[in-house]
Amino acid sequence: MTRRSADDWLADILLWGERLEVHLRDQTWTAFLANTLLQDAVSKCIEAIGEAAGKLDDLDGELSDRFFGMQLRQARRSRDRLAHGYYHVDLAIIWQTATESIPRLIEAAKVAKAAMR
After folding, report:
1. Could you confirm whether 84 is annotated as catalytic?
2. pLDDT of 3-37, one tens digit each?
3. Does 3 qualify as catalytic in the annotation?
4. Listed residue (82, 115, 85) closest to 98, CA to CA
5. Which pLDDT tens digit goes with each residue over 60-83?
6. Distance CA 89, CA 42 (A)
7. CA 109/CA 16 separation, integer angstroms
8. Of residues 86 and 22, which shows the higher confidence score?
9. Is the pTM of this model over 0.70?
10. Which of 79, 88, 104, 117 is an active site residue?
11. What is the distance between the alpha carbons of residues 102 and 104, in angstroms, rounded to a whole number?
């Protein structure tokens, strides 16, 4: 198995961030609450971003300090809560994470990826 680089994990964060953006385009909180398919899609994107963030943090624990908004450890914790606490998910937290926290992480990941070139 080929070892993945920081650039690979950043690419995953950006890919799943783009997917999340597409899912949420023109969506409101009310529409999100009414659509379990959308809830599932958003949760999956957050989980994938959190997994990639955790792997990236394992490779470079100082990355979050170098790029404002990166917050890799928080993304990993969000992923863990979703994956292991699926039976007790707070949709308000999912929405807030998807619409506020993840966009900041995505912007920081873009800056980090550009800096690594």
Report:
1. yes
2. 999 999 999 999 999 999 999 999 999 999 999 99
3. no
4. 82
5. 888 888 887 888 888 998 898 888
6. 12
7. 12
8. 22
9. yes
10. 79
11. 5
| Other beta carbons less than 10 A from residue 100's beta carbon | 9
Catalytic residue among 84, 88, 104, 117: 84
Chain centroid offset of residue 52 CA: 8
Identify which of 96, 117, 116 has the alpha carbon closest to the alpha carbon of residue 42. 96
Q: Is 105 helix (H, G, I), strand (E, B) or coil?
A: helix
Long-range contacts (CB closer than 8 Å, 24 or more residues apart) made by 23-29: 24/98, 24/99, 29/95
Phi-psi region of 112 (alpha: psi -120 to 50; beta: other; left: phi over 0): alpha
